[in-house]
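User: quick one, fold this
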Amino acid sequence: MGWLSDEMGLERCAANHVALTPLSHLNRAAQIWPGREALVYGASRWTYAQYRDRVTRQAAMLAARGIRPGDVVATLLPNVPAQVEASFGVPACGAVLNTINTRLDVDTVAYILSHGGAKLILVDTQFLSLAEDACATLDTPPLLIEVADDAAGYTASGRHPEYEDELARADPAFDWILPQDEWESIALNYTSGTTGPSKGVLSSYLHMFSNAGPESWPMVGEDDRYMCVAPIFHIGGMGPPFVMLA
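Assistant:
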């Protein structure tokens, strides 16, 4: 396709262009269905309005901890609420999400943290030793935020700042940092390293829809629910947290 010979006054501006971002889907859901159930974990339930609030608080917490646009935030989490919230909270402060496979060994986790340059990592209490051992090998380790999982029997160790405590103190009015260009990276995922050093792959907005077909085919009614069985860390920025909201 070409351009018109005269496109004076048609330059991109806020009135005619907005960069694509999956963050828009959470904003839309919170506006249209604020009271509808969005997340279920054990006995806990969150509406879309509450979901957005927790995402906003996570973004505010990360920014208050020194995370800036373009920084990498890692997670070492199973499918707990913090992992889903990080899919939106990390990009909402302009950062790039690196979900790490919890089944990797210390050396591989340390390599990924070093190679990706993570400034902060969210760690489930059950994987705390793995994260601490990996961080101990790094010259500049990331700040560690512990994510206790009381529902699964993993209570906070007390050795690190705890996620829910951090959210409670965070600014609920934090302004999301939206992308200026949908080419901006939103996620950094690594291979398992079985055939050599782990290889990093950056994802942007359009990667979100690479799984939209197979994951959304069964979603035909407003009351359907999606049970996320596959570990989110396997598909990071391309997975169910984004697709289901879309």
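User: anything notable?
Assistant: The beta strands are 37-41, 44-47, 72-76, 96-99, 118-124, 143-147, 187-190, 200-203.
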